[in-house]
Amino acid sequence: MFKKASIVLMLFFWAAFLLAQDSKEREWPSEISMEIRDEMFLKFHETLEGIKNKKEKISLALVDGKLPHGLVQSLEKEQCTLLDYQNKSHRISFEKIKARSLAKFIPSEGQNEKILYALGVLFFYDKEWKAAEIYFQKSAAKGYQEALSWVAKTKEKQDIVLKNTETETEPPKKVETKKEEPKKEEPKAVFAEKIVFIRGGKKLDVNSQLVAGKYTVLQFTADWCGPCKMITPQVEAMVKQSDALYLRKIDIVNWSTPVAKQFNIKSIPYFMIYDPQGKMAKEGGANILQDFMKK
């Protein structure tokens, strides 16, 4: 009897420890007052309410790395529930949402100096230093003095990251000159962004858009294309959830532009998937990306 009681007691303390750790990880930044927090969440809630009424699908980036996507099923004061395409519900606390999603769904006219400051703090803790600097500068420009010291902090962080990058970069090794057969140019990892939108309808240098060692998806689209608008949120969510995928959305503008003729585009949305070596792996219509991901 005593042994069973001891085991139960140990389990109780272990559960309490885990809960304490969990709450520590989710602690709201102390630099953001409850008053500012509540005001920011209220504006975020108002936007989600409008999205819910319109039955639009959204994606929310969370601090744990997840990116739930779906319809706003229900709303409470400081949390919401998204219903994904598998009819699975995701209950989300506003405190667990990353700064970039909060900033996206709080209208710019509703971002006063205090909310700009709060978003800057959240970007800072999300380690998105450049975005943090921008929001702190906007807040300071509107007269919020507390934002000024944070501008210097974010610049320091960016300098540290830049120095570490330079330190890790090795100088090129000297190679003896000898005649070799010309090799096919490898794709260049020139873009850090997961998703890039290329407008204008100009001829495309494919190699400059490919990301070395990753799958690159070229999505041909246009502002006037209804099916493109319907499938784009799903494609973007899929790309964001996969470390192996990068997306380049290409606006053909119309059927007679150089880029449309270059790839002989006759219907959109149209996809071309390049493998990590820069070779064409698959191309086709709207279903091609989902079929590719199932493999």
The CATH first-level class of the largest domain comes to: Mainly Beta
State the low-pLDDT regions, or none.
16-26
- Major sheet details: 5 strands, mixed
Distance between the termini: 54 Å
Q: What is the second-level CATH architecture of the largest domain?
A: Roll
Class inferred from helices and paired strands: alpha+beta
How many strand elements?
9
Total of DSSP H or I helical runs spanning 4+ residues: 10
Report the average pLDDT across residues: 82
Question: What would your notes on this structure say?
Answer:
The protein has 295 residues and is of the alpha+beta class. It has two domains: 34-164, SH3 type barrels, CATH 2.30.30.100; 195-294, 3-Layer(aba) Sandwich (Glutaredoxin), CATH 3.40.30.10. The chain is built from ten helices and nine strands. The strands form two sheets. Strands 5-7-6-8-9 form a five-stranded mixed beta sheet, covered by helices on one side. Strand 2 (69-75) and strand 3 (79-83) form a beta hairpin. The radius of gyration is 24 Å and the shape is globular. It starts with a helix and ends with a helix.
